[in-house]
Write a structure and sequence with these properties.
alpha+beta, PPIase_FKBP_N_sf, about 200 residues, Chitinase A, domain 3, 7-stranded antiparallel sheet, isomerase, Peptidyl-prolyl cis-trans isomerase, PPIase_dom_sf, 2 domains, PPIase_FKBP_dom, Helix Hairpins
Length: about 200
């Protein structure tokens, strides 16, 4: 075995697999590589090849978008069901926006406005309990403006006085919406945050 050739094949194969091209005819694929390297006459014109490749990628994108849309419907429904059941629990307050919260500990009378800068400790999880962020884990609180965060935070933290600790249940439209945020927060995700308001700055 020529290991370099095999290594190059691994790279190309991995790339193609990631593109959803697992059903390619490997013999024809190898033949095309041989013809290009050898300078042989191509059995498919460059123009036709480009059209075929463009159509393939368009089909793959359509499939991915359809799968994402279906997954989004499921995630949205799961989040809505969770919030509907959660709203029935004792101590949970439901606001007109759809934001839900429960008081873990009350603070003093100093509350922030929608544009205040605050210092908070927090922990964020998905509704299945998967933790995606925590200032507690980092060992220091976070400081930010309430007009620079998700809408659920902007609304919710204004209810808190310094020293308060609340748990917020945030519907997707008050969180990261239809797109989610990175790999850890999927589209249409309802989120749960425990927030401790340390100081209004």
């Amino acid at each position: 075995m020529d290991k370099l050739s095999y290594a190059l094949g691994i790279g190309i194969g991995t790339q193609l697999s990631g593109m959803g091209a697992s059903n390619l005819n490997i013999d024809d694929f190898a033949l095309a590589i041989k013809d290009v390297i050898a300078g042989n006459k191509l059995q498919v014109s460059n123009e036709e090849a480009q059209t075929l490749v463009n159509n393939f990628f368009a089909e793959q994108q359509a499939k991915q978008e359809a799968a994402a849309a279906e997954a989004g419907k499921v995630a949205k429904a799961v989040g809505e069901d969770f919030l509907a059941e959660n709203a029935k629990k004792e101590g949970v307050v439901v606001l007109p926006s759809g934001l839900q919260y429960e008081v873990i500990a009350e603070g003093n009378d100093k509350k922030p406005s929608a544009t205040s800068k605050v210092k908070c400790h927090y922990e964020g999880t998905l509704i299945d309990g998967t933790k995606f962020d925590s200032s507690y884990d980092r060992g220091e609180p976070a400081t930010f403006g309430l007009n620079q965060v998700i809408a659920g935070w902007t609304e919710g933290v204004q209810l808190m006085g310094e020293g308060a600790k609340y748990r917020f249940f945030i519907p997707y439209n008050l969180a990261y919406g239809e797109r989610g945020a990175g790999a850890s927060i999927p589209p249409y995700a309802a989120l749960v945050f425990v927030v401790e308001l340390i100081e209004v700055l």
